[in-house]
Amino acid sequence: MPNLVEVNYEQTGNSTNTDALGMREMQARAYASRDAQHLLIKAPPASGKSRALMFLALDKMHHQGVAKTIVAVPERSIGSSFASTNLSEHGFFADWEVNPKWNLCTPGGEQGKVRQFQDFLQSNDQILICTHATLRFAFEALETSTFDNILLAIDEFHHVSADADNRLGEVLRDILHQSSAHIIAMTGSYFRGDSVPVLLPEDEARFTHVVYNYYEQLNGYEHLKSLGIGYHFYQGKYTTAISEILDTDKKTILHIPNVNSGESTKQKHDEVGFIIDSIGEMQYQDPETGVMTIKRHGDGKLLKVADLVWDAPQDRDRVINYLRNIEKPEDMDLIIALGMAKEGFDWVFCEHALTVGYRGSLTEVVQIIGRATRDSENKEHAQYTNLIAEPDATGDTVKLSVNNMLKAITASLLMEQV
Question: Which residues share a beta bridge with 387?
Fold first, then answer.
């Protein structure tokens, strides 16, 4: 099925080139507002939000009297984006140095992590990385005033909600109104996919906004020339149609459907097995990394495949650790995921984000598209494809529904908020 949206970009190089301090265009824009106590950074995937936070936090701790920085991310795998980074070699005045002791994005229960969180506050170290969940649990054991003179950075800020039942939103509001904390909120999609706003207008007004939109980012790439968005319909089970749309010559993230959705066969591991069998013959699975090598049907090419659907956390963690350290395109060919590899997941070489099943959340769609829109020498085109069951409706009704969804996606890539 041809793309229904095809966008070409200018390849100016502006969004990836760095200045004398080692900052990209978006990072320099955020750094210009470094004196603001509350910052809301709205910038797309791959624009460098994590490193922008490093620049801002170091300035606040070195020059603005802020004592410590706490970075909260939605899931453990994203914590690696904030690992120790040598910034001084590119011109900045200091390096981002995280004591491994205070990286709480590790396996283990929340009770122990809350104790570590409390120990950090009493230590002489300055930087802690944790999950949103750890922040919520730790906050319950602390006085709000504990966050006085501390920088709290919340990554993937759209997890916050103005709804009274959103615990992360409640924590943020308490810290915002009842402490002297500095707050940096970062998101690639400042909307939640539901009718509830991220922040109430009066709270949002307290933030200085830094906006860097999708088109600024993609026009400023050096290698990526175009983005395609398309849909492919199937009848019956999706596993019978997957080989029609899965091109194993392209670096691909394949998101299979949620087990509760109509598209799912309810046997997610069998689905992964069928996908692998449709590609080729299993050769072996590396015992250290968990990565599978598949011999492709037809030409016998060896493909590296990562299974993030597997339930065993220790096995999945091995694969995730391998994916974090990929340096070359040939290190991975296909990632099969369910509920993972979306927001904050960095595989720069990904060319194709292939999603099975209708996604009701526009936020989720935009995040998935972002997995393929990183600039890399191995690709000139990024592709998002949604493989969905053909509804029991007339062709005109289906076409209208798809066109409306595409309009919403396109608008979300253009607008500051939807």
Answer: 232, 356
CA distances from 16 to 11, 271, 370 (A): 10, 38, 16
Q: Which domain does 270 fall in, by range?
A: 224-414
Cα–Cα dist 341/17, whole Å: 26
> What tens digit of pLDDT does each residue of 321-358 get?
898 888 899 999 999 998 786 766 789 999 999 999 87
d(CA 340, CA 384): 16
Dist. CA 37–CA 52, nearest whole Å: 15
Q: Which residues pair with 39 in a beta bridge?
A: 184, 208
Instruction: Residue 344: give its domain's CATH number.
Output: 3.40.50.300
Q: What angle (nearest 5°) sits at the alpha carbon of residue 328, between those of residues 323 and 333? A: 60
Q: How far is it, in rounded angstroms, from Cα 135 to Cα 168?
A: 8
Please write the tens of the pLDDT for every residue from 166-203: 899 999 999 999 999 999 999 877 766 666 778 889 99
What order of strands is seen across the sheet that includes strand 352-356? Answer: 5-8, 226-234, 381-389, 352-356, 252-255, 334-337, 302-307, 292-296, 280-285
| Residue 183 included in any domain | yes
